[in-house]
């Protein structure tokens, strides 16, 4: 079998808050997926899509959505062009209302920081020379 496309589906409490957060970070809305149950954004040069469903809607298809206050479902990694880009991401995430769980720091030969969106979905922004 050959996979044509892959995307992520995640549950959120408040679609308007989610839309505001990801719009403030500069992500592109995936316009044809906007309604009372779903908002969708395009991430990166490869156009990775994340759908954000109202949790109650997602739970109709997923037996149990992760409780992000006590655990983690996945961490998405975002590549940065340099250390300054990582620092700028951290500042923009703070302004947009995200929670920093790992301040910008050196990691092996790279540089990274980690954050959660308002619903607790986790991301790290990473600069890795040569990547």
UniProtKB/TrEMBL annotation:
<dbReference type="InterPro" id="IPR037523">
    <property type="entry name" value="VOC_core"/>
</dbReference>
<feature type="domain" description="VOC">
    <location>
        <begin position="4"/>
        <end position="128"/>
    </location>
</feature>
<dbReference type="InterPro" id="IPR029068">
    <property type="entry name" value="Glyas_Bleomycin-R_OHBP_Dase"/>
</dbReference>
<protein>
    <submittedName>
        <fullName>Glyoxalase</fullName>
    </submittedName>
</protein>
<dbReference type="Pfam" id="PF00903">
    <property type="entry name" value="Glyoxalase"/>
</dbReference>
<dbReference type="InterPro" id="IPR004360">
    <property type="entry name" value="Glyas_Fos-R_dOase_dom"/>
</dbReference>
């Amino acid at each position: 079998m050959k996979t044509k496309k892959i995307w992520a589906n995640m549950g959120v409490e408040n679609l308007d808050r989610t839309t505001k957060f990801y719009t403030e970070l500069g992500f592109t809305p995936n316009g044809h997926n906007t309604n009372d149950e779903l908002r969708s954004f395009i991430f990166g040069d490869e156009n990775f899509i994340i759908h954000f469903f109202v949790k109650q809607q997602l739970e109709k298809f997923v037996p149990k959505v992760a409780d992000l206050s006590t655990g983690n479902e996945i961490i998405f990694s975002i590549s940065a062009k340099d250390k300054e880009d990582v620092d700028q991401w951290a500042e923009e995430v703070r302004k947009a209302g995200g929670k920093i769980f790992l301040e910008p720091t050196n990691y092996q030969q790279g540089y990274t920081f980690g954050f959660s969106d308002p619903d607790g979905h986790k991301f790290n922004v990473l600069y890795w020379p040569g990547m």
